[in-house]
Amino acid sequence: MRTLRRLYQSSFLKGVVAVAGGTALAQVAGVLFLPLLTRLYSPEAMGLWGLFVSFLGVASVASTLRYEVAIVAARSEEEALALTRSTLVLAVGMGALGGVIFEVLRRENLLGYGILPAWASPLAFVALTVLSWGMVLRYYAVRHGAFGLVGRFTVIQGVARPLAQVLLASVGSVGLILGEVLGRFPGLAPLWRALPKTSGPWFQLEVLAKFRTFPLIQLPSSFLNTLALMAPVPVFVTLYGPAVGGTLALAQRAVGLPVSLVGGAVADVFYGRVAEIARVKPQAVRPLLLATAMRLFLLALPFGLALWFWAPALATLVFGDDWAAAGKMMALMAPWMMAQLTVSPVSRVVFLSKWPWVKLIYDALSLFVMALLFLWSYPPEKALASLSWMYVALYVLYLFILVWLAGPRGFALESDMRGVSD
Questions:
Q1: What distance in Å separates the CA atoms of residue 288 and residue 219, rounded to the nearest whole number?
Q2: Is 195 in contact with 140 (CB distance < 8 Å)?
Q3: Is the pLDDT of residue 367 over 80?
Q4: Which among 66, 233, 185, 201 has a CA at the least distance from the CA of 136?
Q5: How many Cα atoms sit within 13 Å of 53 on the Cβ side?
Q6: pLDDT tens for residues 104-113?
Q7: In this predicted model, what pLDDT tens digit does every residue of 183-229 receive, in sequence order?
Q8: What is d(CA 181, CA 120) in angstroms, rounded to the nearest whole number?
Q9: Which pLDDT tens digit goes with each residue over 110-138?
Q10: Per-residue model confidence as pLDDT tens digits over 154-163
Q11: Which residues of 207-230 are buried (b: 16+ CB within 10 A; e: fewer)?
Q12: Cβ-contact 334, 255 below 8 angstroms
């Protein structure tokens, strides 16, 4: 236990600081650019961008079939490298499929995607492929503890995307989407260079088949979860129009800053350390999960209170007079943000459990809650308030599930990892 305590207090926290430092710089850039973007682009333009980003968020889960998560769990370096290469190739084909699906959504005007122009579909293919490459290479770096590299990658992309959107404002609303795509290329080169230069085939179907549990079990769960998280903007565009959807997209981007800043960093390092600790002493996983969740809640509390009391007054000052409604939405989303920041970073423990399919219960309920918006006749703010508190309840349920999975009976021992990889 003393060794594990030193591991948690030293390398764990150093890894969090390395990733969080990079994420912090990226988010600072995002915050600084937001007031400028809201004055260069209208709520309607922000709504188009929100639809595009929502699609990327959902499609990126399927674009890798969740094989990137298996990179950390692979038992040998040769296996991890082969899985990384194969997933990078797979992402290109899945990106093309994503572009086709995007075009179908646009032509059939499903979930409001009909308001997007035809050029958005090929851009979706490019953005989805590059986004997937970043995810795969990021997990390979996490496996090797290269958290500084991950942090630098996050900084570069965090600055490049809003900067490109500002520079492309002269071309109109297309600038938001085009900047989103072009801004995902910088920062990839160092991650590519981290891959060993070894010979051999880049695509090995047998390696993907060996880790088939990840797409068969974890892909449906992750897809439903991400679909529920990214659905608000398309749903609000469909129910209330692109201006309301764009206002929500801005509110989500602002409220999501603490989650991205702290949550992403903790999630990367927590997952790597849980996989490491599980090989030494699996019964130490549950205490680590509970301690991490408690610290995250204490960190989320002041963020939530600040949003609740100050966001409505500060929104117009920071974003401009056209965005007053965004401040009210940010305040309504504060409880949701607190629950997400507390639970989401530790949720990756489910990928190493014996029964990852249990997460499907939470995912199905989460999607059901989002679907309720189509049955209610609420105005936008009341609908968002109801949605926020219902997601708080779901995150509490999810935390109980995670604590149970992290126990001695639910967590996979090293000898049980065959069920994940074989």
A1: 26
A2: yes
A3: yes
A4: 66
A5: 24
A6: 999 998 888 9
A7: 999 888 888 888 888 877 888 989 898 888 778 766 777 777 777 77
A8: 10
A9: 888 999 999 999 999 999 999 999 999 98
A10: 888 888 999 9
A11: bbebbebbbebbbbbbbbbbbbbb
A12: yes
The three-point CA angle 144-5-152 to 5° equals: 35
Please report the sign of the dihedral spanned by the C-alpha atoms of residue 404, residue 405, residue 409, residue 414: negative
Tell me which amino acid residue 198 is: T
Q: Counting Cβ atoms within 10 Å, is residue 400 exposed (0-12), middle (13-18) or buried (19+)?
A: exposed
Cα–Cα distance between 363 and 356 in angstroms, integer? 12
pTM of the model: 0.73
The token pair that represents 227 in the structure block: 């679909």
CA distances from 25 to 28, 32, 138, 160, 262 (A): 5, 11, 18, 12, 12
Amino acid making up residue 139: Y
Radius of gyration of the chain (CA): 21
- Concatenate the DSSP letters of all residues of 150-164 into one string: HHHHHHHHHHHHHHH
Yes or no: say if 158 and 21 are a contact pair by the CB < 8 Å rule: no
Structure-token pair, residue 40: 């260069």
Lowest mean pLDDT among 19-28, 218-227, 352-361, 413-422: 413-422
User: What are the angstrom distances between the C-alpha of 145 and each of 149, 318, 350?
Assistant: 9, 38, 21
CA pair distance 49, 180, nearest whole angstrom:
8
Rounded distance, CA 321 to CA 213, Å?
Answer: 50
CA distance 42 to 319: 11
**353 has which bridge partners?**
411
In whole angstroms, give the CA distance from residue 212 to residue 421.
7
List of residues 6+ apart from 50 with CB closer than 8 A: 233, 237, 245, 246, 248, 249, 252
Q: How far apart (Å, rounded) are the C-alpha atoms in residues 172 and 234?
A: 21
Q: How far is residue 174's CA from residue 293's CA, in Å, rounded to a whole number?
A: 40
Single-letter amino acid, residue 364: A
Q: What is the pLDDT of residues 274-329, one digit of tens each?
A: 877 776 777 888 888 999 999 999 989 998 999 999 999 888 888 888 898 999 99
Q: What angle do CA 226, 341, 227 make, to 5 degrees?
A: 10
